[in-house]
Amino acid sequence: MSELSIKLRIGNREYPMRIKAEDEERIRRAGRILNEKAQTYKERFGIDDQQDLLAMVAFDCQNEKMKDDEGKNEGDTSTFEKIKNLNQLISNSL
To answer: Could you give the percent of the chain with pLDDT greater than 70?
Structure first.
């Protein structure tokens, strides 16, 4: 497992990182997405302050994650119910 030293620019700052080589593409893509979201907020709302932009991006990302997690929980419940029904059908047929 090899490590890389990279510099990732988020907003107007550069962050040095040591990462696993296999994580490089995902980490760079995450940085691009953050910068694109910040640019969108800047253009849409006229926000110039980097701290405000990054706070909005962090809020947006957390909101998306929570929405995804809720969807996964609903899927887990649905899957559990299906398995429970299948077990009941099998038990009834034995």
So the answer is: 94
- CB 43, CB 30: distance < 8 Å: no
CB distance 15 to 8 below 8 Å:
yes
* Closest-CA residue to 57 (of 45, 40, 43, 44): 40
Task: Give pLDDT tens digits for 25-43.
Answer: 999 999 999 999 999 999 9
Cα–Cα distance for residue pair 91/93, rounded to 1 Å:
5
Beta-carbon count within 10 A of 34 CB: 20
Query: What tokens appear for 72 in the block?
Result: 């996964």
Q: Within 10 Å of residue 60's Cβ, how many Cβ atoms?
A: 15
- Single-letter amino acid, residue 36: E
- Angle between the N-to-C axes of helices 24-45 and 50-93, in degrees from 0 to 180, rounded to the nearest 10: 120
